[in-house]
Amino acid sequence: MIHALFCLVSRDLDRLIMTFAPVFMDLLRHVDEEYDMMLTWIKDGTIPDLEGIDHVRAHLQVSFEQGHLHANPRRAAELREIGSPFSCAGWVARVWPKMRMLVAVSSGPYAFVLPKVRFALGLTIAIRGRGYGATASVVAACYEDHLDTFVLQTEDVVEFLDAAAEETHQNILQPWNLEAGRQYQVVLTTRDSLWRYPLGDIIEIVGFDTNGGSPVFKYTGRKSSSIRLWYALISDSDLVADIQAISSEDIIQVHEFTVVVDDCELPTTVGYFVEGTLGAPHSLVACQIPLNK
């Protein structure tokens, strides 16, 4: 909430950098829920009494009052005229006219919010990914500004295991051994340690960079996130694609979801628990998605 307040009071933001795209939507939802109150805080130049900020409240108030972060009735009036975040398409571009891009991980399980992100940003603000990596290493960069396609680019040692192969040293593959169209698990050795370990991520090679020949790939899911039924293996990318297929204003605007195996009746299927805004009553019918995996 405090981050949102400091963002709103400034008209000159030119980029927003988030960890994941759903975090951006969470920020907008907080603003939407407290919009009138936040405009009052901006108008009066006060920091709200929020739980958990007592130890830094005085410092925040000083920061808010210094420079351009002061009581700003004009900015509050401008924001009130624009309306709350979900009141119009392109809200972000209207609130921050200089905004050029949102930088956030927007691939894999985080891709399901992209239609809502684009609605909020409008057509003039770019969405850029943050590359592909782990806590210990950056493994790849976004390929030609694609959100879900990456090119291997790292100073660490990155190796691979065929997704269907046993996890043994003998099955380790080097980047030049990879084949387009096949799926692999990423194995990482960081330059700062002697640890060599599989990330548990499954990628699919889609080609090779014409400038240097590095593998170009798409993330397809977590090895541990796949759901194995006796007749099918369902990856998390398949589960996300199904949610994207039903997420709309007419049915339900999905905010978050989780998946469980439903074996109450045969054949065994998967079921979704979904958090979101329901559509019109006439559209609330059972949605059955065929399992063609």
Automatic annotation (TrEMBL):
InterPro entries, per the entry: GH3 (IPR004993), GH3_M (IPR055377)
A Pfam family the protein falls into: GH3_M
Signal peptide: none
Molecular function via GO: acid-amino acid ligase activity
Domain GH3 middle: 157-222
Gene Ontology CC terms: cytoplasm
Domain of life: Eukaryota
Protein name: GH3 middle domain-containing protein
